[in-house]
Specification:
Order of helices and strands: EEEHEEEEHEEE
Structural class: alpha+beta
Helix content: 10-25%
Strand order of the largest sheet: 8-5-6-10-9
Number of helices: 2
Strand content: 35-45%
Shape: elongated
Oligomer: single chain
């Protein structure tokens, strides 16, 4: 049996969750809403995170552009995602929502611009 205590970050309540996994079954207590139960189970089975960073820009008014993954990626894949981000160079102009790198690190998730960079 595996047991973890965590604070739910889904809503402002900050419920203290107690999550237990035994024989592949997960139980969550301490949550005040359904979203807390879903969050606790997800954290126990396969924690997911949105990754934010910056990429280099060529020909832009700014040398860097903020980016993020369009959806959450498995926490265990964050190092591979960040390694892929370090290799990215984009050409200005860049607009919010532009896909900077599709299917980053084979996760099935796109890396998108979260800021604008005008051309020089």
């Amino acid at each position: 049996m595996e047991q973890r205590e965590m604070v739910c970050i889904v809503c402002p309540m900050g419920c203290r969750l107690k999550v237990t996994m035994q024989d592949g079954q997960v139980s969550v207590s301490g949550n005040t809403c359904k979203r807390g139960a879903v969050y606790g189970e997800q954290e126990m089975r396969c924690p997911m995170r949105v990754v934010t960073s910056t990429v280099r820009v060529r020909g832009g008014r700014h040398p860097m552009c903020p980016v993020k993954t369009a959806q959450s990626v498995p926490k265990a894949e964050i190092d591979r995602v960040l390694e892929a981000v370090r290799q990215v160079r984009v050409q200005a102009p860049v607009k919010i929502g532009d896909v900077v790198l599709p299917n980053i690190a084979g996760t099935g998730v796109n890396l998108v611009a979260s800021g604008n960079v005008k051309a020089e």
